[in-house]
Amino acid sequence: MPGAERRFRLWLLFTTNKMKKTLLLALAILAGAVSGTAFAAKKKKKEAKEPAEAVRLATSSDTLSYTIGMIMTNGLIPYLQQSEKFDTAYMADFLEGFEKITAAGDDPRLAAYASGMSIATRLKGQMLAGAKNEFTDTPDSVISALVFRGFTDALKGDTTVMKPAAAETVFTAKRKANSEAKTEKLYGANRKAGEQFLAENAKKDSVVTLPSGLQYKVLVKGTGDVPQKTDRVQVNYEGRLVDGTVFDSSSKHGSKPATFRADQVIKGWTEALTMMPVGSKWQLFIPQELAYGERNAGKIKPFSALIFTVELVGIDKPKTQTPATSADESKKKK
Predict the structure, then answer these.
(1) Over the range 48-64, which residues count as b (16 or more CB within 10 Å of their CB) and which as e?
(2) What DSSP state is assigned to residue 271?
């Protein structure tokens, strides 16, 4: 960030609340000035203003105050250009708005008007852009004019079209439906690829298919204990997508086996681990609904079936304390 703009942002953070309020209101007036350009172009040229009264710095406080004002503009122009999309061609309009606000004192009507401009600028910018981005590639789209109308109707208390509670319910339902449709549109092919792979894989003699849809192939038979869901297990593993892409392995995280509770992983893993004796090495073929489903997990895209080679090295048994003997107790007392 350029030094001048950085200094301006620091001024925003550390000046008094009243100073910050004045500056924010001035920025709000700027938004109104820019949006009202078309209207201003139709008006006749304004009469030339009288020159500003000469500044007289009679006291030390006068000088301090004037320098504060000047220094606070350091970095203001790049800040406005970046954050508010400010066009310096309208500097006169900006100054007119600034002077109007600073001269008005605590006029609540003008403060409310300026707040309306500020909120409108944010709504037309970041908020509307965010909404449109969320509903890109979905069956529905966001229509700016109706967003603005719904906004103003809600503030007016106008329930002719819809009550606020109903709006919340409708929006929540539409957001969910559109999100699901978007995910299906973008990643539905992963579901089909996984289903086709698992259907073909199930035909192999060495592959066992469980009622849940989980498939496994025994590579090495173990003879040790079988973990419970709440047991911590030690595992070496490698994970692949159905196209053969390796997305993770225990060797990437160090030379020791990965350690975790058997019920703190995806469903397909939990089901397999609680069937495997220690010393076993299996190949797991996990349908997407027993893996990450519609979630996006880095290299694992939504609806992806997964293939894991899993070796169960051991189970971390909790250490049991040996009961203290009477001799031990007598030593403690001494």
Answers:
(1) eeeeeeeeeeeeeeeee
(2) H
Scored b (16 or more CB within 10 A) or e, 254-270 reads: eeebbeebbeebbbbbb
Q: Is 332 helix (H, G, I), strand (E, B) or coil?
A: helix
Residue 86 φ/ψ, nearest 5 degrees = -75, 135
* Torsion 188-191-195-201 (CA) sign: positive
Q: How far apart are CA 227 and CA 263, in angstroms?
A: 10
Query: What three-state secondary structure class fits 104?
Result: helix
Q: Are strands 215-220 and 232-241 parallel, antiparallel or unpaired?
A: unpaired
* Residue 245, both tokens: 């892409």
Burial of 33 from C-beta contacts in 10 A (0-12 / 13-18 / 19+): buried
- pLDDT of 253-306, one tens digit each? 988 999 999 999 999 999 999 999 999 999 999 999 999 999 999 899 999 999
Helix intervals (H) in the chain: 3-14, 17-35, 37-42, 60-71, 76-83, 91-104, 108-122, 128-134, 144-156, 164-201, 267-273, 326-333
3-state helix, strand and coil shares in percent for the chain, rounded to the nearest 5: 50, 15, 35
Closest CA to 304 of 165, 167, 170, 198: 198
Distance (Å, whole) CA 1 – CA 141: 36
Q: Is the dihedral of CA 123, 124, 127, 131 positive or negative?
A: positive
Q: Would you say 286 and 294 are in contact if contact means Cβ atoms under 8 Å apart?
A: no
CA dist., res. 236 & res. 254, Å (int) = 11
User: Could you tell me which residues come within 8 angstroms of residue 166 by beta carbon, excluding any fewer than 6 positions away?
Assistant: none
pLDDT in tens, 171-228: 999 999 999 999 999 999 999 999 999 999 999 999 999 999 999 999 999 999 999 9
